[in-house]
């Protein structure tokens, strides 16, 4: 059953992510009792005290808010129609901040923004603002793993106990982590973790601490038996990458995304003090109205790590996804392996058909799409690629849940009606 809506939520939102996120968090907290403590006066006062210190929405000066079109066929792009759709979607959700980027197969691109980076001051979201991409991070992590499979540093059949000592790791392989068939429970449903994730907003989580939380729970099923999405799998992949390469995860992201591919606005930690970041807002987990979660940045990003902690922009995300499917990152055989799918129905992503190696296969308006979605407290993202005709669409927002399929579908319809 879907949770009741706030008055400012879009009544046409058909995405299950909002109710699913709230359901998982409340289950982890042990019901409304613990949630009530976190949502009470002390928690809110702590949030209000911290978020001002961490507000980075004004950095970078005057932000560009007008749509931008690039590439060889810029004159064909229906820029006004894209922007009108983005503005309308933002307005229906009380001016939620949105960044969108569309890459076409011929190298043309459209980039637009709508809504607010700071809802309290009604400061517009601009093209230079960064947002967290949640579980789209998993696509980046999987890409790093597969790059090192290409280089024979890792193998998909490697047992994970080559790098990590887990009591129940016997029989679990790197492939099983990538496609969520390991049976390892989701650490973000662990009450001990969730209470501290929200209750200690300035905590810097070390990857080893997250692994220790994962160790506490028994497997949910025999490894390889079925698919069940678990953030724990990608925490473990991040640790495996670090140990196999003797390189920190933040540096692996920098080396591939910024140094090699040239996308300069993507980070896991280590971002400059001058980087503007859109504030984070939630209105769906605890149902206490729109609340600023910006003060929780340190806990949220380090607690998500290689499963959800990357900071980026819509043009960077669309660019990386586009490059991935155009063979700029992985060779053909490795990309084919990435696109080897298992059945993966998901009550929280109702458009999902299958799951590959860090790759969701969604079907929106009858179109088969490949990429990932992401939800982290304060931000929601969708980034998907269509093969023929070729387009990649990424939409980032600064509220925990949006109708990801709805906004993607709207931009996709415009693309098919007016560009192709």
Strand order of the largest sheet: 1-3-2-15-14-13-12-11-10
User: What is the approximate shape?
Assistant: globular
- Report the helical percentage: 25-40%
Under the CATH scheme, which class of the largest domain? Alpha Beta
What would the keywords be for this entry?
2 domains, two-stranded antiparallel ribbon, single chain, alpha+beta, disordered N terminus, 420 residues, Beta-lactamase
Characterise this structure.
- The protein has 420 residues and is an alpha+beta fold.
- It has 2 domains: 17-139 and 252-419, Beta-lactamase, CATH 3.40.710; 161-247, no CATH class.
- The chain contains 14 helices and 15 strands.
- The strands form 4 sheets. Strands 1-3-2-15-14-13-12-11-10 form a 9-stranded antiparallel beta sheet, sandwiched between helices. The protein has a two-stranded antiparallel ribbon with strand order 4-5.
- A hairpin with a 4-residue loop joins β14 (379-386) and β15.
- α4 runs antiparallel to α14 and α8 packs across α9 (231-245).
- The protein starts with 16 loop residues before the first helix and ends with a helix.
């Amino acid at each position: 059953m879907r949770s009741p809506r706030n008055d400012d939520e879009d009544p046409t939102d058909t995405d299950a992510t909002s109710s699913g996120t709230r359901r998982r968090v409340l289950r982890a907290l042990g019901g409304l009792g613990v949630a009530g403590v976190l949502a009470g006066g002390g928690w809110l006062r702590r949030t209000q005290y911290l978020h001002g210190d961490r507000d980075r929405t004004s950095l970078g000066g005057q932000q560009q808010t007008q749509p931008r079109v690039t590439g060889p066929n810029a004159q064909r792009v229906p820029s006004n129609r894209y922007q009108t759709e983005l503005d309308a979607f933002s307005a229906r959700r009380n001016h939620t901040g949105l960044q969108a980027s569309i890459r076409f197969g011929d190298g043309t691109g459209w980039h637009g923004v709508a809504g607010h980076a700071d809802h309290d001051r009604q400061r517009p979201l601009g093209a230079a603002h960064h947002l967290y991409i949640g579980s789209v991070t998993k696509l980046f992590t999987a890409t790093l793993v597969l790059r090192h499979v290409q280089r024979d540093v890792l193998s998909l059949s490697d047992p994970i106990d080559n790098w990590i000592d887990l009591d129940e790791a016997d029989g679990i392989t790197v492939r099983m982590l990538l496609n969520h068939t390991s049976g390892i429970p989701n650490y973000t449903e662990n009450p001990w973790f969730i209470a501290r994730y929200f209750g200690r907003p300035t905590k810097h989580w070390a990857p080893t601490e997250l692994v220790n939380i994962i160790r506490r729970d028994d497997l949910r099923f025999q490894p390889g038996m079925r698919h069940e999405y678990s953030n724990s799998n990608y925490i473990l992949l991040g640790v495996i990458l670090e140990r196999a390469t003797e390189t920190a995860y933040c540096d692996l992201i920098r080396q591939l995304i910024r140094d090699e591919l040239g996308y300069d606005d993507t980070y896991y930690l280590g971002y400059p003090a001058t980087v503007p970041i859109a504030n984070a807002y939630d209105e769906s987990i605890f149902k206490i109205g729109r609340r600023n979660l910006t003060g929780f940045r340190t806990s949220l990003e380090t607690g998500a790590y290689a499963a959800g902690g990357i900071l980026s922009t819509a043009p960077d995300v669309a660019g990386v996804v586009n490059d991935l499917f155009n063979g700029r990152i992985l060779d053909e055989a490795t990309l084919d392996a990435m696109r080897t799918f298992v059945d993966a129905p998901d009550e929280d992503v109702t458009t999902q058909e299958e799951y590959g190696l860090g790759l969701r296969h969604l079907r929106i308006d009858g179109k088969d799409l490949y990429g990932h979605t992401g939800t982290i407290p304060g931000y929601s993202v969708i980034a998907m690629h269509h093969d023929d005709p070729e387009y990649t669409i990424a939409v980032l927002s600064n509220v925990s849940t949006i109708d990801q399929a709805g906004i993607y579908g709207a931009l996709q319809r415009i693309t098919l009606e007016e560009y192709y």
